[in-house]
Structure formats: structure tokens, C-alpha cells
Amino acid sequence: MAHIDVVADDRAALKRVAARGTVGWNEGPGFVVSRRGAKLQRLVKDQLEETILLGAACSEVFSGPRLAKVLRPALEHQRKAIEAMEKDEPWEPLSIHTSAGLPAALEKFLNCLEKHLPQAPEAPEAPEAPGDANDWFVNLQLEGATAVWAGVEAVAHLRQALKPEEQKECLLGVAQASYHGAKTTALGQPALPRWPGAPRTTGQVAYPVPDSDDPKASEEYLEKFSTFLRDNPQVGIFIFEPQWGSSRLGRTWPPALLREVISRCHAASRFVLCDEVMCGLGRHGHGSLFLSAAWNLRPDAVTFGKSMASGKVFHVGVHQICRQVRHLTALRWLLPQHNVSRRCTPNPLTGTAGAALADAPFALARRQCLT
Fold first, then answer.
1. Where are the domains of the chain?
2. Which distant-in-sequence residues (6+ apart) come within 8 Å of 320 by Cβ?
3. Which residues contact residue 292 at a Cβ distance below 8 angstroms, ignoring those fewer than 6 apart?
4. What is the tens place of the pLDDT at every residue in 74-128?
5. Which residues form the signal peptide (predicted)?
């Protein structure tokens, strides 16, 4: 461990940042000087520390040459735009407000994304409903908490369109000890007040999570969950994390158990949002973009942000997909009040990187993150 001098400005900066701790808390991870996969060099207490970081919220799985290949098109996009600016020539915008239009890179991203979509829920009822049961749309957000909120709002509109006979009250089933963003402003249990004396986020009902993947324990859990469904008719939407993030150290649900739980939700006319924001590209160990697709979970909507697997080296955005839009025409009338894609549309750089990422091979060499 080599000692280096840390300038006073660096120490002052650490004391002025509230990041995973209170302002002035500078005994944490410190500044990251360099990284290669899971290997980091960090400044910690005036020392240059070499660390292999495993299991962090944004741990590296997709890195090195593969990550460079994904990022290269966005870098070229930016280079061409800057060169055109210097020549006072037209350039493809690096960002654009929705009042002006949408970035062209978004089209390629959506086309690449479609082939990876999870399967739509089975829908034997309402065969007379207009539209295609496999239709879908995307909502683009900047970070995970608002993506989950947007997903919940979209599914609530979908529920209203597909199940108008259901009771109007619609609360959210959220897992015990779950995390979908800051617990002061986002979903997750237990909810916390935003400031001292403030009310907590309302509308969440905590459902139990399985203790283990033992077959006997799974049977007992299904009985417990069925009881929860019966006793809580006010819960119209359930949020599941097929793979948890830092709240449960990347733990996954037993696949067969989660499939059955989601099936029981649908049988009880409940809707399901799978939050895959923390299921980074390749992080779940399956040859697919979505864990919901690999496990055939068939949720009504999915939130995802695949840059998590690259240590968020380039933020490709956080998105939400809504499936089973058989009443898409009706939804178009409902969605003006919906938490729509941000007024400043997705950065074309993120769309370009996202398209390259969606086209990337998923047979990842696991050892790459350690070499």
C-alpha cells in the first residue's frame, strides 16, 4: 500500500459531499483513482489502496474490451458532433428537448431492445379487447427511483384499462427490506421520513419474502403469500426484484417460486412490476438481457438500467417497459397525466450506447471482471 500526499482541496471536497453518508463523513470509500474490472485504486486516509470490490451495488461484470466496444459508437457520435460544431456545420444533437423532437438514436435503441423483451403475461380473458396482447411501450427516466415510480403509474393505468371492474383503491405490494431508491422519496421498506417530522411515503404494504430456497420452505411461503393475497385485496400492484441489489447482496429469488408467485398474482387479478434496475448486464448469469425473460416470469412491466453491470461507467439511462397493452388506444387517452419520459429526451449518447449494449453478446467470460 503506497503512501501519497493528498492535497488540502481534496480533503475539503470530501467534507462537503453527502454521498452514502452525512455531510463531512469522509471515512468511507474515498476517491477512486483508477479501475480495471473489479480492481480499484482508491484514496483512503491518505493511502493509495488497491482493492478487489465484489458485491457492490454497481459491481463490475461487463468491462474491459467488451465495455469499450459498447461505448465506442457513442464516443464517435460525440466526436462527429463536436467536429461539426467547430466547422459551424449542422450536427446530430447531443441532447434535445421533447418540444423540438426526439433523438434519432432512440429509434435504433428501441429496435434493438424489442428482440430482448420478456414474454407478455398470459391473457386468456377479454379476447375481444382491441390491439395486440404483445404490444409494448417504453418510458425513459434518468435514474432508478423515478423509473420505478413511472412503472407503477403506467401499470396503474393499465390496470384501470384492463380491469375497470376492480376496486378503485390500488396500493402497492413491496417486499420487506426492499430498496427501490432512497426510502425517503422512493419505494421500499421500511419507508423513512424525508426530513425530521415529515410524513412517510404512503400506499405501500409490505409482503413477506422467502427465507430460503428449500422446497419445504417454498411450500410454506406459497401458503403465506396466498394468505397475504386474500387478506389484502387493496393491493393491486406487486413489485418484485428477481435479483436484489445491495439490500440483499445480489441474492436472487428461487426462479420456480417467483414464477408461481407471479402466476398467483395474475390469477387474483393483480398486476406485477419486476424491478430489474439492479440486474445489470450479465450480472444475473444468464444469456439474456432480462432476468424476467430468462426465467419466463411474464410480468406486466419491467424497470431496468443495465449500466449497473459496468460500474455505471456510462449511464445508459433507466427505463421501464410495459407489456400486455391490449388497450393501448385507451391508454393513450390516460397517459397525459402519467409520469412520461423526461422533458429533455434521452441523451443520444445514451441511446447509442444502449443500442450497442442491447446488441452485445451475453456469453460473458466471468473471469474477465477479475483480470
1. 2-52, 105-370
2. 138, 139, 141, 147, 148, 150, 151, 154, 301, 302, 303, 304
3. 118, 242, 274, 276, 298, 299, 302
4. 889 889 999 999 999 999 888 888 788 888 877 887 888 788 888 878 755 544 4
5. none
